[in-house]
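Need tokens for this chain, all 164 residues.
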Amino acid sequence: MRYTVGMPGFQPSHILSITELQKLSLKRLRAMKRDEPLLVMDQKRGKHGFVIIDYDAYCALHQPPAQTPEKFSLKTLAAIPFRERGLLWDRSDLTDTAFLQRLRNAAHPEHAWAVTRLFERLPSHVLLRAVPWRQLVPLLKQARLRPALRKPWEHAIAYWRQTT
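Here are the structure tokens for all 164 residues:
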């Protein structure tokens, strides 16, 4: 066996050449039951190679973090300066606090307008930081958006639904 010197984290017993790997049968490789990953080096190319790791160990390394259910709170939106972001450009009489009250109160006559303004004027990354995408679905239904604005949001929500 030839070993590459200085491979961080790998002991010489955990390094094989590709030729040695080809000589091993799959049955013998499975029987090795290693706790550590096995590094297979390509001797012709020097530093190139790949790692063989137990599937259970791989799954343990790549477990998605436990997610707590995200709750929608308008407190997260309260940190956004709506006037500075241009949401209230045509409403000089309206303050950020009054805008939040319209968002909170679904019975307010301007509630649909306020929700629509969120989707129209806030960049998507800002809105997603403030509101979880699952909570955007009911808000999007309340918004009166033009199809050119509604379709990208619907497409993004459908994508997020598939990936999570």
